[in-house]
Write a structure and sequence with these properties.
Chain A is mainly alpha-helical. Chain A contains 4 helices and 2 strands, in the order H-H-E-E-H-H. Chain A has a domain of 86 residues: Cytochrome Bc1 Complex, Chain D, domain 2 (Orthogonal Bundle), CATH 1.10.760. Chain A has a two-stranded antiparallel sheet. In chain A, helix 2 packs across helix 4. Classes of the chains: A mainly alpha, B mainly alpha.
């Protein structure tokens, strides 16, 4: 019986895959198509590192991409507790470098214990949030 | 006279101030207990070093005296193991680590290049005493490093921890996990005759720790239920034969250690205990049994969908994962799928082939297909630990020229050329706001989510350990042999019975000399972990896999050389 189910599933998958394209330029799907915002990060939002003059174009592109992802993850995972309300406006506070101690953040603060697990924030995402908080323009509001 | 009165008042004032700041004996009982044990241990270590310095190691009787002294030092150490193992795991390994060299690839370290740690301490010193040509300096080095490591436990960073209750319940959790997995098996006590006596001495020492803690922290007490059960556990060990191979591991863990673990976990929650240690990195506070699949987090099976909790969305990811798992368009020639090797009807492995066919039928692969069941409970993936997560492993197979022979861009294009896939993944893209477009990560995350749901601890043995049923006499005897005489459990640790031991933050690799074939004339030529981390110690080493479902996942070993477990 299990073998029949397996064969049926394989057959279904083969039929399903018959629509595969050899070269289909329309196969790319972006967030724009899904009507989500596909915003570009304005330069005034971040400060490049002091040695940015020596960065290659690829490094700059990665810098901006990580920054952009860091904003989204911060807003999804962190903003609810960390943003400060100043005169009715939500402000992302400035974190000091010791406060942005990567892995250590997972365990140094009791409130992070259940929220910053590896099953809620990957190591890569962690780096992107730290990257964002480190290089964002300072708001003047300290955490 | 007036001056005398003033002087008397001043002295009385000073004394009263001094007494008001000095903690009472009961408040200090716990700290005093720690300090006393630590100081006695250091003193004993110093005595041992002096004795070695004065001993002629060519005399067998003198060497025996050294051995006796080392055993005494280690028994004393066992009384501190409760604190040492948790508060500074690295120093602990220098005192009683079982291995001369360790390559660390622990949970967060997996993002870095592996690095080497030289071992030291009493287990290695005892082993060294078995050598024919003893060198005094080598022996002294092993024990002196241990003494130096012990001094780390006098540091403020550690003793300050003792002033709060948090560390105590986390130390205790690790202690209980090790009672179930390590202390009874001889993992760090190669002299088998000492396993049960050292265990008993340690349990009694820890009882003293419990008493002093309760005295010093009346608001965070270990409750009466716990203490009563713990005392029964001590009596149980005291009633066991001295011969470690006769020890009843089954009833010890089932009736005492696991229920104690459950109470400790509840107290961790009740007392709002929180951790500042990487030791607790993967352990779950909510797990109420050592035999719970929630005990520790190994892998993130959801991948890029990690923060999705909506059941409907998860069902959709699961459905897509299943389709992709069976779909040959993930291969370069549209003829192979995940299921070609990981057959769901065969416990997600291939029980027929020793090793699977290569891409385009160009011979056979080097290694046996591992089961995907319980793969999620590993910290490093693949038998050589090549990948740090399940998603990378899936991509690795898809793009391997010997396996599925595809490339990521081509696979993505083929999948998205299918309207059904495109529509479904487009809808799922909303769940991953950091991604501007569908990527290979979406595909492989769906696959890993699909197959990981079959990883469950729902065997009759788990039910028995959770007091829902009782195991047959045969199973109990088999488990006791596994944990004791057969020494299986010194590599396959409960509850997963793989190479992930408490505190469940790293995957162990072992060199066991698997034969090339059943002629047993040479060992397998596969270098194993060496391919990832070339070092003398990693040559022919392989990640210790789980033996759960082993009866259904033949053939065995990395090259599938054995077709039966016997």
């Amino acid at each position: 019986m299990k073998t029949i189910i397996t064969i049926t599933l394989i057959a279904f998958a083969v039929v399903f895959s018959n629509c595969k394209a050899t070269k289909n330029t329309n196969s790319k799907v972006t967030q724009t198509e899904t009507s989500q915002a596909n915003t570009k990060v304005p330069e005034q939002l971040y400060e490049l590192p002091y040695d940015s003059a020596s960065m290659t174009d690829a490094q700059k592109k990665q810098f901006v991409s990580d920054f952009e992802k860091g904003i989204i993850i911060y807003n999804t995972v962190c903003a609810n507790c960390h943003n400060k309300l100043v005169n009715g406006v939500q402000i992302v506070p400035d974190f000091s470098l010791p406060q942005l101690m990567d892995y250590e953040m997972r365990i140094q603060y009791p409130s992070h214990e259940n929220k910053l697990t590896e099953t809620n924030l990957t190591a890569l995402e962690f780096d992107q949030v730290v990257h964002y908080l480190r290089y964002k323009k300072k708001s003047g509001v300290h955490f | 006279m007036k001056n005398k009165i003033l002087l008397f008042i001043f002295i009385a004032f000073v004394i009263s101030i001094a007494f008001s700041f000095a903690p009472s004996e009961s408040e200090n009982a716990y700290f005093i207990n720690y300090k006393n044990k630590l100081n006695s241990f250091e003193k004993l270590e110093a005595e041992l070093i002096a004795q070695i310095n004065e001993t002629d190691l060519s005399s067998i009787s003198k060497v025996e005296q050294i051995k006796s002294k080392i055993l005494a030092v280690r028994t004393q150490f066992k009384g501190l193991d409760f604190w040492f193992r948790y508060l500074d795991p690295l120093a602990h390994k220098k005192i009683n680590g079982p291995l001369p060299v360790e390559w660390e690839t622990e949970v967060f370290e997996k993002y870095e290049k592996p690095y080497k740690r030289e071992g030291a301490g009493y287990t290695l010193a005892l082993q060294y005493l078995e050598d024919e040509n003893l060198d005094k300096n080598t022996l002294l080095s092993l024990v002196t490093q241990s003494l130096q490591a012990t001094k780390a436990y006098q540091a403020d960073s550690i003793t300050d921890e003792l002033k709060k209750h948090h560390h105590f319940y986390l130390c205790n959790r690790l202690y209980l996990l090790n009672l179930a997995t390590i202390y009874t098996t001889g993992f760090d006590c190669p002299e088998k005759d000492n396993i049960v006596p050292e265990l008993l001495a340690m349990m009694k020492d820890v009882n003293e720790i419990y008493e002093s803690f309760n005295q010093s922290f009346p608001n965070y007490n270990l409750n009466t239920n716990y203490l009563n059960l713990y005392n029964q556990a001590i009596q149980f060990v005291a009633s066991q034969p001295k011969d470690y191979s006769m020890f009843d591991h089954y009833n010890f863990i089932r009736n005492f250690i696991n229920p104690l673990f459950a109470i400790n976990q509840q107290l961790i929650i009740n007392y709002r205990v929180f951790s500042k240690s990487f030791v607790d990195y993967s352990l779950n506070k909510k797990a109420t049994s050592i035999f719970s699949k929630e005990l520790y987090n190994g892998q993130n099976s959801k991948g890029i969908f990690l923060r999705v909790n909506d059941e409907k969305v998860l069902a959709e990811i699961d459905k897509l994962g299943k389709l992709l798992f069976y779909d040959p368009i993930l291969s370069g020639n549209n003829e192979r799928s995940c299921v070609s090797c990981h057959k769901p009807t065969q416990f997600f492995t291939d029980t027929v082939s020793t090793t699977s066919l290569q891409y385009n039928f160009n011979g056979f692969l080097e290694r046996n297909t591992p089961t995907l069941l319980n793969a999620t409970y590993n910290h490093l993936i693949m038998l050589d630990g090549k990948h740090i997560n399940l998603q990378n492993q899936t991509k690795g197979v898809i793009t391997s020229a010997k396996e599925m022979g595809a490339n990521e861009a081509e696979v993505l294009q083929k999948v998205l050329s299918c309207n059904e896939y495109k529509t479904a993944f487009t809808e799922l893209l909303k769940q991953t706001p950091t991604e501007k477009e569908i990527t290979i990560e979406h595909l492989v995350s769906a696959i890993t989510f699909y197959y990981s749901k079959f990883s469950k601890y729902n065997s009759p043995f788990d039910d028995a350990m959770n007091l829902q049923t009782n195991a047959s006499e045969n199973v109990q005897q088999g488990f006791n042999t596994f944990m004791g005489k057969a020494e299986c459990a010194t590599c396959h640790f409960a509850p997963q019975f793989n190479g992930v031991k408490p505190p469940y933050v790293g995957s162990e690799f072992e060199v066991i000399g698997v034969p090339k074939d059943l002629k047993f004339t040479s060992i397998s030529e596969d270098n194993g972990r060496y391919k990832i981390n070339p070092a003398t110690e990693t040559l022919n080493a392989f990640r210790t896999g789980t033996i759960r479902n082993a009866a259904n996942t033949k053939p065995y070993m990395h090259n599938g050389v054995f077709n039966t477990m016997e």
